[in-house]
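If your schedule permits, I should be very grateful for your opinion on a structural question. Thank you for your consideration; the sequence and its tokens are set out here:

===
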Amino acid sequence: MTVRSKVFLPLRARVVTRPFSVSRPRWEAVPLPAKKPVGAFRGGVFGFLCGAVAAGASVYYYVLGDYRISNEMLNQDISALQTATMNLQSYISELEAKVDQLKKK
């Protein structure tokens, strides 16, 4: 509240505040136990290592998934090449058989 608003309030509505310097419980407060400080160097190294491990793990799983996909595609290409080679082999053996029949006549 500003000073101007206190002037227009009735006496009952005014809030009586106690100054901070008289507050006894603050004087008798027990001090907090001293914490062992975490140095900037130690905290920085720990943060860096956590970040590096998280980034390494995510890259590992990404590369593993990419490797799995490329391996499946390679297996499909190998099986397609194998079937094409078998078809070509059967076609060549048919042509050789026809050539042999023509030579016998």
In short: Residues 40-96 form one domain. The CA atoms of residues 51 and 62 lie 16 Å apart. The chain has three helices and no strands.
